[in-house]
Specification:
This protein is an alpha+beta fold and 408 residues long. 16% of the residues lie in helices and 41% in strands. It starts with 7 loop residues before the first helix and ends with a strand.
Length: 408
């Protein structure tokens, strides 16, 4: 290549021209650039060409339009931060707009490529989870996973969704409760369309379903239960609608209630959201399945407001509070970083007689939507949201007499 007239500037100019052409051809798209090294004697700094092309492209077209990638993501790549002299340093310093492609499929791979050619006693599920953990340590958000793994390693794929903050484009279900029989039911939904339903387990006296989340990380949502008299919490592990096990969680202090669940410390595990009605104080209890792992106070709510749900509305990877004022029907979003409040905005005001009962991504666009319920007519509705902005709505199914909507 030296004999052919190789120079550093020629390589940078050629790479920049290619990126400029791609950016201009697809003005509304994000462009992915897989980076590699050029070693001596051509370059003294093996990352210099890739770095200069990256910097020139981002300077002209914006940081978030150029995603830097690696195509050798595996369970044996180094955790971040990498050695500054390693081939992973440029990838690490290119965040947060970084992506990756798995080296190979884990499922059915007899050579264990994703684990450095040696399984070391790990299953394909464990290797894929480990790969996700390594990638996430770099702050990566987009990871291409082979279809064999998506089809056959459902629990690990669900774990990847949680870790990478990707909203699964799968139907979001209604959880129903009938007070006089304590029966639960699950209505399977495709956006706002009812697909079918099945009875879930019957609750013991004194207990209520507060939320649903995958606490044991088996790919199935579990019931999160609370007994307001004893302040005891419990998890009911489900497979679909079938109860397969249960465990008590921690008991809350006097004056506190369990109001929601969400991942507030970005460890891929759902945490408890607590509320004290007397002081209007909120708190987060960090959970490892049913085990309390620590806690911190969150912001105190204004008078007359309650937490209706939690979700990442501004898509910064942090879980936010969704608030509702039943007197004015006003909604609001409080943006959080962990437990720290840093800004709030009003959302749309609901019509009279409607209540905000939950939040979920119903239309699969990666943005949380409002779930509304009218107790008088038993009608449900979905308001599609773009952050705090109302983008459209649709009626959902009407509930039978005696049933209430407790969670999406």
């Amino acid at each position: 290549m030296l004999a052919a007239g190789y120079t550093h500037q020629k390589m940078v100019d050629a790479g920049t021209q290619i990126m400029d052409a791609a950016m201009a051809a697809w003005p509304n798209q994000v462009i992915y650039l897989a980076i590699g090294r050029i070693d001596r004697p051509l370059e003294q700094d093996p990352d210099s060409v890739a770095r200069d092309v990256r910097d020139a492209t981002r300077s002209r077209w914006g940081v978030n339009r150029l995603v830097i990638g690696k195509e050798i993501i595996s369970n044996v790549m180094p955790f971040a931060p990498p050695d500054p002299t390693s081939a992973w340093e440029l990838f690490y310093e290119s965040g947060p707009a970084i992506a990756g492609q798995n080296l190979a499929a884990c499922y059915g791979d007899p050579h264990c490529l994703m684990n450095g050619g040696n399984c070391n006693g790990l299953t394909a599920d464990q290797i894929l989870r480990g790969t996700v953990d390594h990638f996430v340590s770099y702050g990566g958000k987009w990871l291409e996973i082979y279809d064999d793994d998506v089809t056959n390693l459902l629990s690990a794929i669900h774990y990847a969704h949680q870790q990478l903050f990707i909203s699964c484009p799968t139907p979001t279900d209604y959880v129903l409760y009938k007070g006089n029989t304590r029966q639960t039911a699950v209505w399977h939904m495709n956006n706002n369309v009812f697909l079918g339903g099945a009875y879930g387990p019957t609750l013991p006296a004194g207990w209520n379903v507060i939320d649903v989340a995958d606490f044991n990380r088996d790919g199935n949502n579990d019931y999160v239960l609370f007994n307001s008299s004893t302040r005891q919490t419990a998890l009911w592990y489900l497979s679909g609608v079938t109860l397969v096990g249960g465990a008590f969680g921690p008991t809350l202090p006097s004056g506190w209630a369990l109001v929601a669940t969400g991942d507030f410390n970005s460890d891929g595990k759902p945490d408890y959201v607590l509320y004290n009605a007397s002081t209007r104080q909120t708190a987060i209890w960090y959970m490892n399945n049913n085990v309390y792992a620590g806690g911190a106070f969150g912001p105190a709510l204004p008078a007359a407001w309650r937490i209706a749900g939690v979700a990442d509305f501004n898509r910064d990877g942090k879980t936010d509070y969704l608030l509702f004022n039943a007197s004015t029907h006003q909604t609001a979003i409080w943006y959080l970083s962990g437990v720290t409040f840093f800004r709030g905005v009003f959302g749309p005001t609901l019509p009279s007689a409607w209540a905000l009962v939950g939040v979920a991504d119903f239309n699969g666009d990666g943005k949380p939507d409002y779930l509304l319920y009218n107790a008088s007519t038993r009608q449900t509705a979905i308001w599609y949201m773009n952050n705090n902005v109302f983008a459209g709505g649709a009626f959902g199914p009407t509930l039978p007499a005696g049933w209430n909507l407790v969670a999406p």
